[in-house]
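Query structure, 345 tokens:
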């Protein structure tokens, strides 16, 4: 992997982008002579007002005036600063940026912390999956078999969505992870940072955050485990759903549950279905509705929509619950989606 200064990396990143390919991830483009035209995503464009030139490497909307190169487009549509965008694209292109001074130290600390949390999450996910096969998990297997009465569908749900089980008791996962990773033994607080453990209010030590719950791993668009949802097995256990806190990896406003499993279907159909709960999404996928994703228990955000449009979604369907909370969430989502809606035609 090459190591470049930030300025060199920015030039390398820009040189590796084809503006037509970049914009086509978000906008339907039609070739017109030596250039391309499409509806501008930055205003409610009623007719194709945006021109894209591959030769010049620029785009220009003749209605709202927005224009620039590939980086300008991506900064605006992904709502990122120049620095954030270059760092993300450099990582995608296999370019290692050489930082200097305090910035280098800060970047390295954050990078190391992210990699350690990823390792902990992946190991925890595998451990939860193993526990689901043990005698102790009989209750959770019964819960799943009642929800999915077809045995084949039940196994499909477990395997496709990597479901697992958190054992009862205060210390099961925590000592396991400490035994697996030297860096946890050196810094046990990383388990708290990852959202997998909590510190005891009285005394010393930590205890498992997830206990006696069906575990639902949450993946990012790359398929990396960034968080977990824990479903209680009885009405007496509160809360019904216990989720990971926000971490260096997990921002609710940016993650859609099931997106990793749905992204190929979203690209192919150019549509997405937004649902509320984990099991709404899983059930939809089991019945062939593989464009379904979930909002991880939070309101739809602009980042969610940009993620969907980045992977080609031109139509978004809302499939929320019909109760008061679901209707409120749907109205909020409609207001958010409205500026993206295409008019005319």
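Result returned for the query:
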């Amino acid at each position: 992997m090459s190591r470049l200064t930030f300025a060199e990396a920015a030039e390398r990143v820009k040189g590796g982008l084809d503006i037509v390919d970049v914009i086509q991830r978000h906008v339907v483009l039609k070739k017109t002579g030596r250039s391309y035209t499409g509806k501008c995503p930055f205003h409610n464009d009623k007719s194709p007002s945006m021109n894209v030139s591959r030769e010049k490497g620029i785009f220009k909307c003749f209605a709202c005036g927005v224009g620039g190169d590939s980086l300008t487009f991506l900064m605006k549509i992904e709502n990122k600063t120049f620095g954030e965008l270059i760092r993300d694209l450099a990582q995608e292109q296999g370019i290692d940026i050489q930082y200097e001074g305090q910035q280098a130290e800060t970047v390295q600390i954050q990078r190391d912390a992210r990699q350690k949390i990823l390792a902990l999450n992946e190991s925890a996910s595998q451990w939860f999956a193993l526990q689901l096969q043990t005698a102790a998990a009989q209750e959770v297997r019964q819960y799943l078999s009642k929800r999915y009465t077809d045995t084949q569908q039940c196994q499909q749900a477990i395997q496709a969505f990597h479901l697992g089980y958190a054992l009862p008791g205060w210390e099961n996962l925590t000592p396991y992870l400490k035994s697996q990773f030297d860096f946890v033994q050196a810094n046990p607080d990383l388990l708290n940072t990852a959202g997998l453990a909590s510190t005891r209010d009285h005394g010393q030590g930590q205890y498992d955050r997830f206990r006696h719950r069906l575990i639902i791993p949450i993946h990012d668009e790359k398929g990396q485990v960034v968080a977990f949802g824990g479903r209680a097995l009885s009405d007496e256990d509160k809360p019904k759903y216990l989720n990971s806190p926000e971490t260096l990896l997990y921002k609710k406003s940016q993650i859609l549950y099931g997106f990793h499993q749905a992204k190929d279907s979203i690209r192919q159909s150019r549509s997405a279905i937004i649902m509320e709960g984990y099991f709404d999404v899983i059930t939809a996928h089991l019945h062939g509705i593989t464009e379904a994703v979930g909002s991880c228990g939070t309101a739809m955000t602009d980042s969610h929509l940009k993620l969907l449009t980045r992977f080609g979604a031109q139509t978004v369907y809302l499939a929320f619950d019909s109760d008061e909370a679901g209707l409120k969430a749907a109205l909020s989502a409609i207001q958010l989606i409205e500026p993206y809606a295409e008019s005319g035609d």
